[in-house]
Amino acid sequence: MTERSPTLAELRRRTSIKWQAYGPDVLPAWIADMDFPVAPVIRAAIEAALDRGDLGYPLGYEKSGLIDVFCARMVARYGWTVAPAQVDFFSDVVQTIYLALLTLSEPGDGIVIQTPIYPPFLQAVRETGRRADICPLTQSPTGYTIDFDLLERAVDARTRVFLLCHPHNPTGRAYTRSELEGLAEFVRRHDLLVISDEIHADLMLDGRRHIPFASLGADISKRTLTLTSPSKPFNIAGLCLAVAVFGSEPLSHRFSALPAHVRGGRSALGMAAAHAAWTEGEPWLEHTCARLRVNRDRVAAFIAAHWPQVGHVPPEATYLAWLDCRALKLDREAQAFFLRHARVALSEGPTFGSAGVGFVRLNFATTPAVLEEILGRMDEALRRHGGMSG
Ligand SMILES: Cc1ncc(COP(=O)(O)O)c(C=O)c1O
After folding, report:
1. CA of residue 93 to ligand 1 center, whole Å
2. In the predicted model, what is the mean pLDDT of the chain?
3. Which atom of ligand 1 is nearest to the CA of 91?
4. Is residue 2 situated within a structural domain?
5. DSSP label at 129?
6. 187-199: average pLDDT
7. CA angle, corner 7, sides to 22 and 233, nearest 5?
8. pTM passes above 0.90
9. DSSP SS3 for 231
């Protein structure tokens, strides 16, 4: 696949929040957008829609063929059989998490969350008046794991929902089948519903196949609402389209208690892009995972060579590196340190929960040149201001 990498000047012309939130001297490596050019099949689909003048109210999802395309892809990619009647679409995954909490639980109910965690999980639980049953993942030199004893202690009779992030942001963990079986046994025993956010499923970096949580068995499927989107793997977050798979009719009925218009409208360009991505986007996705793998390995090698005090285990999925900076002697919280001294914008660890204090998240989905500049600037900041010898 031949694609020219955008230059830094071209990237700075993007109007996205990633590129505009900070000043022109800052390199952004925070929010989860990628800096690669638009996938050619998505560009072609959008151009074709524009050529037709096709920006009116779109057909319903089932009539548009999008549901069938999604179902076919789930079988082909993950061996996961989903019936069209189980599928519905929304504007974005975070919106759907809020709607799911509002319809599938009551105020004060406990929602299990494994920290550190993608910050909107914490916000959604707080802002809907639910109770966060926080269960930190256990950090070890080889990566984060689930402590099932801790999980047992995190829940009580008021716990209703397990809000699962799989693959996990920010740690990049892609749980193994045996870990997932352990979680399945746990949610069965405590009779919990599961909201499984699988938005990073297509971004497995080592050839392992993602295992949808709902595919673990009929009894698990029936208690699981799976959320996903083409937005992360195909880098189209601004086109606003997310998918919900309801594992059982009672789940979708409870959800349908919401008036349909609360869900927002359909995006003609989002639908066109998703259709193209899911039917013709596999070569681009494969190419993208390959370049993410190269970047991931570069970040890991750089850290091992230059910043031995920084804790880091390369992610199995996602394009996010989670850096434990607690052993560095920084003059402020790590994100503020790198913003001030390196002019690199990372994501702030503490927003991922108290398990993130002293950490930063680095988005490495950029061009090799920009990645080198990010690492070089951070390195220099650490040498000058971070108490590391040169
Ligand atoms: C785990 C997770 N869920 C959801 C989202 C956002 O999805 P959406 O833009 O569809 O709300 C992200 C974005 O990075 C994410 O990492």
Report:
1. 6
2. 96
3. 10
4. no
5. T
6. 98
7. 75
8. yes
9. coil
Residues 57 and 204 reside in one and the same domain: yes
**Residue of 16, 31, 91, 94 best suited for mutating to test ligand 1, as the one with most atoms within 8 Å of CB:** 94
CATH number for the domain spanning 360: value is 3.90.1150.10
CA of 32 to the centre of ligand 1 (A): 8
Q: Which of 95, 114, 173, 232 to mutate to test the pocket of ligand 1 (most atoms within 8 A of CB)?
A: 232
Same domain, 32 and 158: no
Reported as a single tens digit per residue, the pLDDT across 208-226 is 999 999 999 999 999 999 9
Q: Rounded to the nearest whole angstrom, what is the distance from the C-alpha of residue 117 to the centroid of ligand 1?
A: 11
Burial (0-12, 13-18, 19+ Cβ within 10 Å), 15:
exposed
* CB 215, CB 221: distance < 8 Å: yes
Does 390 score more than 90 pLDDT?
A: no
CA angle 215, 218, 219 (to 5 degrees): 115
pLDDT digits (tens, 9 = 90+) for 94-148: 999 999 999 999 999 999 999 999 999 999 999 999 999 999 999 999 999 999 9
Residues with CB under 6 A from ligand 1: 32, 92-94, 118, 165, 169, 197, 199, 229, 231, 237, 242
Q: What is the DSSP letter of 244?
A: E
pLDDT at 263: 84
For 240, the domain range is 43-280
Q: How far is the CA of 49 from the centre of ligand 1 (A)?
A: 26
CA of 53 to the centre of ligand 1 (A): 30
- Token look-up 């938005």 returns 199
Q: Is the pLDDT of residue 389 over 60?
A: no
Mean pLDDT value of segment 277-302: 98
